[in-house]
Amino acid sequence: MHNNKKILPFLYLMPTGILLTIFMIIPIIYTFYLSFFDWNLIAPTKDFVGMRNYIEVFTDPVNQKVLMNTFFYIILLLVLNFIVPYVISLVVKFFIKRMQGAYKIIFFIPSLFSLVVGAMIFSWLLNPVSGPVAFLFRESGFVLPNWTNSGGLAIIVICLITNWKVFGYNFILLLTGLGSIPKNIVDATTVDRIPKWRMIWNIVLPMNKSIAIYVLILTIVQGLQYVFTPINVITTGGPYYGSSNVLYHTYLNAFVLYKTGNASALAITTFLIFLVLLYLEIKFVEGRSRYE
Amino acid sequence: MSNKKNALWHLPLIIIGIIALLPVIFMISNSFKTLQESYQSILSVIPNKPTIDNYTTLNHQVNLVRLVWNTFFMATLVTVGKLFTGLLAAYAFRYYQFKHKNLIYLLFVATIFVPFTIVMIPNYLVIAKLNLLNSVIGVALPQLCDATGIMIFLKTMEKIPGSLFDSLKIDNIPNRRIFFNIVLPILKPSIISVGAMFFINSWNEYVWPTLILKDKSSFTLPLALQNYISSEGGTNFPLAMALSSIMIVVPLIIYLIFQRYILNSISNSGLK
């Protein structure tokens, strides 16, 4: 009986454990191993090249461009998918009295749909030549810039498409966080005639810090993976890698150019960036050990 | 005065609501237009002469039943797998003390931070070795567990007092009965909502399936749709919109039925 009790929890953890070992832990180690080789995914032999793939990650001009793009993506995603929904959730929580439920239901609807659908509709609507937005621009005497020819503008459009999908989800997460702030604290500031923006800045934001950081981290980690779909559907990373990011470039190296070693080194680099975010998550969100 | 101020705050919210819904309305309405009409008045909401031609044409060009079945089968496999592994793992974390519990839990949470690019090459090679390329089973296999599910289930289980569990243990009530008669009924709302989200996400999945499914007969809906943007469909916009409309029906129905559960469970996933 006593023995049984010791084994049982591990028995319950086993399905997840086995799957994670086969499809996550071993693959991470294997990708790390591959990052030191020159290989094309098919050939029977791999050539050991030491650190060359890693040196290329930071010295190759295309890789440098892609890393810079990734940085631009992160900034845009933070603004569009974190700051904007946060501001809107504050508005819904503290500045209006009715329809909160309706906004929640409606804002969430786009997150039900595939990004392939979103990418297709928006690339059509925003088509610089034949799209209706370009038409409206012409009618009113403006010209819609040809964003497909400019990496920077393409990145903005791709982030806006992702924003369409993710906005509602992040909005609801942040709104829930605000809901857990004790009502009497908010009421007390109203009685004392403290302006709302000060109440928000001095009380609400600090109290909501842990969930905000959670959403912020999620925005970067998931956002960089979400943009993969519109990139692949609309620009395939172009023009000249101008709208590619480090994840898309990894895919391109691995499955289009068959440069497995380069792809692996890029993947490991991405993982290192994400590990920094994981550290922040453990420090600020998971808090001190839950199960001691 | 206060009312006017209030109305002003609603303005940005209403605009966001319109931006959220407009593409969907636009998509459904264009799927009922002729190619010519969609060229001439792509933005009009109500088609002049509504037609279901796009849907019948689509049915001739692709095997719709097969596409829906592939997508449904894949999403069901993934959902059942994630629920099963997640419930068991959460149960272990909640009701047992064991060595390195905290570390193992953090390891599970850490999996959220693993970019898919780092596992995609080895997993592709494994699925190819197993001869599961062009099979939705090959797509589902590496995704049968999910840390978010474990986190949400754990959160719900924490509402069941530990003392209740202890007294059941003293009375020698077998684990199987505790799990099925007590834990599962309490978890039912979470299971419904988490399951619905797993299903919807898998239904829409795009990146990993594009690597595994190359043969058209094995395609899921997002892959078939992508085909319509580039080669086959060319510039036939209403046709692509018809396929998109078919694709969103299932997630939309699930959401309309379980909307309250779904919104609640998202809330729980973020709260610590």
TrEMBL record, chain B:
Principal place of residence: membrane
Database matches in InterPro entries: MetI-like, MetI-like_sf
Bilayer topology: Multi-pass membrane protein
PROSITE patterns, per the entry: ABC_TM1 (PS50928)
Residue ranges annotated for the ABC transmembrane type-1 domain, each copy included: 68-258
Pfam family, one: BPD_transp_1
One GO biological process term: transmembrane transport
Ranges that cross the membrane: 7-28, 67-91, 103-126, 132-154, 178-200, 237-258
Xref: CDD domains: TM_PBP2 (cd06261)
Subcellular location: Cell membrane
Key words, A-Z: Cell membrane, Membrane, Transmembrane, Transmembrane helix, Transport
Origin superkingdom: Bacteria
Gene Ontology CC entries for this record: plasma membrane
Family note: Belongs to the binding-protein-dependent transport system permease family.
Protein name in UniProt: ABC transporter, permease protein
Species annotation: Companilactobacillus nodensis DSM 19682 = JCM 14932 = NBRC 107160
Taxonomy of the source species: Bacteria, Bacillati, Bacillota, Bacilli, Lactobacillales
